[in-house]
Amino acid sequence: MPSSSEDRDRRDDGRPEQARLRDRTGRPLPYGTVGVPVTEEHEPATVEEALALGGALWDEQRYFEAHECLEHVWHAAPAADRDLWQGVIQVAVAGVHLQRDNPAGAIALLERAAERLHPYPPVHRGIEVATVRAACEEAAFLVRHGDPAAVELPRFPATADGAWFTPDPDALHPPAAPTPVPDEPAWRAAPRTRTPRRREA
To answer: What is the pTM of this model?
Structure first.
């Protein structure tokens, strides 16, 4: 078993890699575990690919993997859409909590997601915002007052035309060219402006 940072498995780029397999809910499995469905590594090249893959994994109830793919969308989003994508991700994470038999965690994430999605119109960027908000509120109620094990999240909340991403907050249609997956969140990479200090007389 790795005992120090020097002993850890590393990717081609030198970053540490977790050698232990994880189950479908993201929990690390004991070394040598076999015969258990495990999470897969996904490395989409574009934000659009990450969004499509995240939606497909969501519909397979692979919420842990879905949330990891959808984080690429959130990280690339302009400030105006940031809460939209974070709210969608929080619903997926609520699904992870339900799969891990953690009803309190699921309720907290469902309520946060509904709150984040509240300011958006009923449909935005191909996401059925009103539908997913109502589903969050219903699921949170059922988890709190019913049988959490019987609660199922709805399918990925995309319209029939599909969810779409744009880095332009004013866009009414998807961009013509795909958006590369960013190395870091857009808001972290954005230049920071510093307010000059006022000199005392």
So the answer is: 0.79
